[in-house]
Design goal:
Elements (H helix, E strand, L loop, with lengths): L8 H7 L12 E5 L45 E3 L21 H19 L1 H10 L1 E5 L2 H10 L8 H21 L5 E4 L8 H7 L7 H25 L4 E4 L1 H10 L8 E5 L1 E2 L14 E2 L6 E3 L7 H13 L5 E2 L3 H9 L2
Helix pairs in contact: 1-9, 2-3, 5-7, 8-9
């Protein structure tokens, strides 16, 4: 059995923590790919790895929707629909069997609402969904894999492909809005060219890959502009853009400032930079995982995610646009 420990557990868990000024815990829904898959793929016939959602102070963690434990009153906490391996495009991760693609996640969200309605009624269910906090983490697989290792690299320029992805992402976010989401954190992609998997496969000297960095730096501003356009169209701050690139790049380029020994080598893995293959019982596992910025070949360590969470809560407008999570919590506590 393959093992996955902490990837984005802190990010997911902290968002359901409610500041003291907020009256009650709101429901929390998660959509997207591997950084926030809290275990759905454990219940599917797929070889993709999953995260184990950690519990942080103040609230019960959100269960994966596929978990048999998610029923009755636990539905009020929310649900995690994310599935590792998916992307913005429906054929991202086509090599994997059984993963829950984006619009399938939305079908499960509709099913969730029907199940919750059977417990608390349709009117209250609508209120729970409308007032919930939603996290959408999507794009890393599409930007990092589809453009580089599929025929698309010969069909599109980076800017053209990025614009195409944004048009498809817009459809995804509008569908989420149609399903009742009114507070959605939308994360951009991190520094994809700097992850240990890319260093191990394509970097000759440990430098971040310029091609992937360029793709990310084109995609993220387009995503930010698209969410602003949607908010203007909807007349509300429904979508909040999370600049994952800036939140990651500082501790990647200056790891010692944050107390890391390195940002190049993963804590768990094989091969150069521990960047080849998944974390499993045969992997090299560092003794002090807090000293590493990356947990495995693709994902930040728990300690790195704690820095990211701080920025999600208190980040300025270049990191959280138009408002950060602390502001959202205060505003929504007055509703």
């Amino acid at each position: 059995m393959r093992i996955m420990l902490v990837l984005a557990t802190v990010v997911v868990a902290i968002i359901v923590v409610v500041p003291k000024r907020v009256k009650a815990v709101r429901a929390f829904f998660v959509f997207g790919d591997s950084p926030v898959d809290s275990g759905n793929n454990n219940y599917l016939p797929t070889i993709i790895l999953n995260v184990i959602l950690g519990k942080r102070i103040g609230s019960e963690p959100t269960l994966p929707y596929m978990s048999p434990e998610l029923n009755g009153q636990k539905l009020l906490v929310g649900a995690n629909f994310a599935s590792a391996g998916i992307g913005i495009l429906n054929d991202t991760g086509i090599q994997f069997v059984g993963i829950i693609r984006m619009f399938q996640q939305f079908e499960l969200f509709e099913q969730y609402q029907q199940r919750l309605s059977a417990v608390i009624g349709a009117k209250r269910t609508k209120k729970v969904v409308n007032e919930a906090l939603v996290l959408m983490t999507l794009g890393g697989n599409t930007c990092g894999n589809d453009f580089v290792i599929t025929p698309r690299s010969r069909q599109f320029t980076v800017p053209d492909f990025s614009r195409y992805l944004i048009s498809q992402y817009r459809r995804i976010l509008m569908r989420l809005y149609e399903l009742g989401a009114r507070r959605v954190l939308v994360t951009g992609t991190g520094p994809l060219g700097c992850v240990p998997s890319q260093l191990a496969m394509r970097s000759s000297n440990g430098e971040c890959l310029a091609e992937l960095q360029q793709a990310t730096q084109i995609f993220n501003p387009l995503l930010d502009n698209m969410t602003k356009d949607l908010n203007s169209q909807l007349g509300a701050h429904t979508f909040v853009s999370v600049n994952a690139f800036l939140m990651n790049i500082d501790f990647i380029t200056n790891p010692q400032k944050y107390g890391f020994v390195t940002s190049k080598m993963a804590s768990c893995g094989q091969g150069p930079y521990n960047g080849l293959g998944p974390c499993n019982p045969l992997s090299d596992l560092c003794q002090n995982r807090y000293a590493y910025a990356f947990w495995d070949a693709f994902h930040p360590s728990q300690r790195a995610l704690e820095f990211i969470v701080d920025e999600i809560f208190k980040g300025t407008s270049n990191l959280m646009s138009p408002i950060n999570l602390s502001t959202i919590m205060v505003l929504d506590s007055n509703i």
